[in-house]
Amino acid sequence: MKHLLSISDLNAMQAISILDTASELARISDGQVKKLPTLRGRTIVNLFAEDSTRTRISFEAAAKRLSADVINFSAKGSSLSKGESLKDTAQTLQAMGADAVVIRHSASGAAQRLADLEWMSGSVINAGDGTHEHPSQALLDAYTIRKHLGKGSRDLQGVRVAIVGDILHSRVARSNVLLLTLLGAQVVLVAPPTLLPVGVESWPVTISYDFDAVIAQVDVVMMLRVQQERMSDLFFPNSREYSRYFGLNSERMSKMSAQAIVMHPGPMIRGLEISADVADSARSVIVEQVSNGVNVRMAILYVLLAGGPLEMVTN
Amino acid sequence: MTTSHYILKNASILGGAKSDLYIADGIIKEIAPNIIHEGATVFDINGSIALPGLVDLHTHVREPGREDSETVLSASKAGAKGGFTALSAMANTSPVADTAGVVEQVFRLGQEAGYLNVFPVGAVTQALEGKQLSEIGAMADSVARVRVFSDDGFCVSDPLVMRRALEYIKKFDGVIAQHAQEPRLTVGAQMNEGEVSAKLGLKGWPAIAEEAIIARDVLLADHVKSRLHICHVTTAGGVEIIRWAKARGIQVTAEVTPHHLLLTDDLAASYDPIFKVNPPLRTQKDVMALREALADGTIDIVATDHAPHSSESKDCEWQEAAFGMIGLETALSIVHKTMVQTKLMDWQLVADRLAIAPAKIGRYDAHTKGLTVGAPAHVTVINPEKSWIVDRDLVLSKSRNTPYHGIELPGVVTHTFFNGAATLIDSSVVSKVVN
Amino acid sequence: MSVALSAQDISRALMRISHEILERNHGSSNIVLLGIPTRGAHIAQRIAKNISEIEGREANVGTLDITMYRDDLRLRPPRSIMPTSIPASGIEGKDLILVDDVLFSGRTIRAALDALGEVGRPRTVQLAVLVDRGHRQLPIRADFVGKNIPTSQNQSVKVLVSEVDGIDEVLIEGGE
To answer: Coil, strand or helix: which one is A71?
Structure first.
């Protein structure tokens, strides 16, 4: 495996081995070891053509804990904001000897274009492309779910997950649908009909417009961010009505089953899709998602960069 | 007048019986077995098929304005290579072809190039803005004698503007060629809306955005009793509406592009913008409906929507890339592959859909007579037995945005004659057309 | 392919190593055995079992994964990370015995020493291996060796253990 562009690049065993690797790395970093020499001498470029502090920092921490050299290349002040093409930027990165590029871009498919066009020879890791996918987020979500609800199993067989909110524009939702179902979970998407893509019927999920009917039935409630500008695009009447039907507040949360957890990929809009008391409640694993993110991204970098272009060996 | 005259020996006329064709003085002089004329250049085409010279009703030649991606001359050569003897230069140039001055310039550039007739299409509205009618009458009366008007690239979305345009062109038997795309339903749209767009996270372009305009405009055309032509129909639903309109006797004609007869939206999964086109590639179900409609005449013609783009406007992210693909040089082969090899059409129907019918819609009278004695000698020869592999580095268009690079296609155009002059001999475009 | 050690040979060699470890370290009170996954970890368990039976008290034993410390990662496909488990006694001030199946280039042991540096500071570090096949690329030697098997570079030595492979055997392949 050279690139991580989409969850569909992975089979179940590969996904599980990334999660297992992340678990071992978590044990190492929970101990005294803060830094491993694994990627010493490798250069990883964070190419962020769209603002995302948390994902960039997470990848940067992961790369540094593996002793890689990290170059940050963000949109503001970079040539990408001056209309330079993705192609020219990639060729620059190639000339700088990047072993891997972690790319965040507003265009769906930008990571795949970077990988396919051989503008550069290194690995490409998709850190979110438009409204397409965000595979590292899905892997850290799966890792977090497995840790809480996996009951020692390596996959997510039998776990029931509700993904709630703006599915249409969510790369997090797309990657999670693919990964969670690949690992055996049952996924239900909860959203107003306007925020579900035409063609969603072909996804391996069930669909509900009724959050209250779903909430008691699931083990995980994954809330998605809803951008305010969707209102002006007529996706819903106003934020009050959205919150009433699709927000997670403490009253709704009280209907959740005993072990169920609340997740959010961040950044949250408290008061719109999630209330502050829910975000800070004992059920919420939102902060833990962030710390798990570093271990999962270390595992991704390790799997993609530590070896030659051969398949992972499980011994 | 003639310095060159030609005998095409052993031509299968429209795919039928073999005969010889004698071309002299710019016309087809004789169609008979064993023609002999002193001094005539003889091409023994050995059973290849002779068709009337192809006519494209929908070509973007980019001149004036984007001569880096195509010129009238380069489009003319690409056309000759593909078997065309006439093309219709779309109005979305820079400046827009919304005055007599611009259409006359394009028309003259076509005559100077000399490979085929370049019939300019006039803009319906000034600057293609959809607000004020352009100088439609002046363009119709100009040397270019414009009869086809289109804002192609944009839809004439305002129903009142569309109504007035349809009415106005009745004065000189014109036709409005509508780019059917409801703009509010396609803001930022990138590809066909459906399962593939849902998966790829690319903004969807619903079929209804096309069908709603077709439905509205056939009703308008019926109401004002004028001629409407629907550009590049892509959906099974659009076909149904046109079928209904024709059954009611509405004066509507329609075109389909070669790429919509073959390619489908799942190609977008590569995120390679070579497959990004307006209107977008649709589903296999739509492709089959379009083929059937072309065969039964619901769709009247094939038009290329040849849309050259420089490499930088395709060598980028999908959503940044330009819409469009080139098609003049591959059109006949794609029709061969999708319609003839599938036995949906014979060569006689091909001659109608790619030459006679488009000429009739555009009122290109010199191109409507087909392979008949006395008709202007616009002739295309295709060897249906041979095949070729498309190489984007060998196209005659100045742009190389063909979606068929590396693909083997059936049928090789070997000869083209325009007004009695050879423009393509043994699949090579002549360096200068000699009359 | 030939059998270099049978199940009985292996059992005898490990018993001898167990005794040598006890002799060198004056009993088991201060020793910690760390096996290198996969097969070294099982061999360490067997030595620990021998020592426990001889001494009548549980020996400290764990595993040390060195995957992330290898310097040849670029040359080979990535391996799954195996668990590292340090016994409750820790390794600080202990006499630590690294256990692996085969000693070859010495690079695994170098990586193990790096990995140990992150865990703590033992009093001594010793090395026990079932097979020493020569061809060292680093100045590293074993303190306890089950059997020296001279090999050529293009041969390979395979250690099979019943916990993983269903059989105890050491095989030499190729390079005739």
So the answer is: strand
Q: Same structural domain for residues A247 and A298?
A: no
* In-domain check, residue A313: no
ipTM: 0.91
Domain assignment present for residue A1? The answer is no
CA dihedral A81, A83, A86, A88 (to 10 degrees): -110
Calculate the CA B302 to chain-centre distance. Answer: 6
- Domains belonging to chain B, first-starting first, are 6-49+375-429 (2.30.40.10), 53-367 (3.20.20.140)
Q: How far is A22 from chain B (nearest CA, A)?
A: 27
Residues A279 and A179 in one domain: yes
* pLDDT tens by residue, chain A, 315 residues: 889 999 999 999 999 999 999 998 888 777 667 788 899 889 999 999 888 889 999 999 999 999 999 998 876 545 555 556 788 888 888 888 899 999 999 999 999 999 987 778 889 999 999 999 999 999 999 999 999 999 889 999 999 999 999 999 999 999 999 999 999 999 999 999 999 999 999 999 999 999 999 999 999 999 999 987 777 789 999 989 999 999 999 999 999 999 999 999 988 988 899 999 999 999 999 999 999 999 999 999 999 988 644 444 443
One domain for residues A128 and A252? no
Question: Range of A272's domain?
Answer: 135-289
Biggest CA–CA distance in chain B, Å, is 67
Same-domain pairing of A151 and A276: yes
B2 pLDDT higher than 60:
no
Output the six-digit token pair for A126.
Answer: 């998709």
Tokens linked to B99: 């005055």
Render the burial of B287-321: b for 16+ CB within 10 Å, e for the rest. bebbbebbbeebbbbbbbbbbbbbeebbbbbbbbb
Residues A99 and A140 in one domain: no
- Could you tell me if residue A314 is inside a domain? no
Q: Is A312 domain-assigned?
A: no
Domain count, chain C: 1
- Output the domain CATH number for residue A280: 3.40.50.1370
What is this structure's pTM? 0.90
Supply the range of the domain harboring residue C80. 2-173
Domain of C122, CATH number, reads: 3.40.50.2020
Examine the domain organization and report whether A160 and A110 are in the same domain: no
Contacts of A37 in chain C (CB under 8 A): 68-69, 114
Lookup: tokens for B402: 């063909």
Q: Collapsing DSSP states into helix, strand and coil, what is residue A302?
A: helix
Span B45-104, pLDDT tens digits: 999 999 999 999 999 999 999 999 999 999 999 999 999 999 999 999 999 999 999 999
* Angle, helix A171-182 to helix A135-149, in steps of 10 degrees: 50
Q: Residues in chain B whose beta carbon is closer than 8 A to a beta carbon of chain A?
A: 190, 193-204, 206, 270-272, 312, 315-320
The tally of domains found in chain A comes to 2
Q: Are C78 and A25 in contact (CB < 8 Å)?
A: no
Interface list for chain C against chain A, based on CB atoms closer than 8 Å? 37-38, 65, 68-70, 73-84, 114, 118-119
The helix/strand/coil state of B206 is: coil
